Fold this protein.
Amino acid sequence: MTYEIIDPQEFLVDGILRQDDFLARAAEYDWGRFAGKKVLVRGCSSAIIPPWVFMIIAGKLAPLAKSVRFGNEHDNIVVLRAETEKRT
């Protein structure tokens, strides 16, 4: 299965996730590139990523993505499916 992958580590600054920097980068991020696609939010990281980061990412993807999964390429779970995805 092919996914577009988003890694929360993309939002780190010097290897650290800072709330203000994350929120600023999330506001400027090109979420539109995930429109109509199956997206995997990578959940494994050596950095400490608080759970609210994944919630914000999923919230940004919800109106756009065909489906959103959480985990890695080999082991993941579906956290969101668009209505059209459920029928297929």
